[in-house]
Amino acid sequence: MTTFALVGAGPGLGLAAARRFVAAGHRVALLSRSADHLEPLVAELSRDGTEARAYPADVLAPDSLTAALGRAAEELGPVEILQYSPVPRADFMKPVLETTAADLDDPLAFSVKAPVTCVQAVLPGMRALGRGTLLFVNGGSAVRPAPRVAGTSIAFAAESAYARMLHDALAGENIHAAQLIIPGAIRPDAEHSSPDALAERLYALHTGRDEFRHYAEPLPG
């Protein structure tokens, strides 16, 4: 049995994605900065007999990410699917003319250095398995920069470039990198952007293994 590792676990999309991959026979490693935040998610999944465990890690602390993903692989089995979908902090979203060079330090660490760290941690296990999936979830500013949210626009664009390069570089090793763009808010009543609908879409990206970029909904005009 292999592991679905979710970086940025939460009660909405994260929990729905975990349930979908559990239904496909995977164990679940939930990563988030707060252990208290993870406990109810593990309890919720465990009620169904799922083997899910919490691994507190801060995406701005690379060593903690590497250690958490290493423990997950040791305790649950090799990571076959990595989903990187933490929610950016509000202070990343300053208008472009108010954004300084220092303001970009954390957004770039969050959206570039942390994903690189995660991929480097799980890639040896995927290669040993002979398969793997890397799922990146971003907002619409990843493909259409928005001057009111300069930090995420810049950092998401860099993350997109990295993920796209992974898609091309790893395809020959049966390791698929894909990006899901969610242009608007995730709402329980949304046809295509509810947690359950998005979880189903992420699972389809894992099994479909075709293009790099996918959209939950069309970008607004």
UniProtKB/TrEMBL annotation:
Gene3D superfamilies: NAD(P)-binding Rossmann-like Domain. Pfam families: adh_short. It comes from Streptomyces wadayamensis. This is Dehydrogenase. InterPro entries: NAD(P)-bd_dom_sf (IPR036291), SDR_fam (IPR002347). Signal peptide: none annotated.
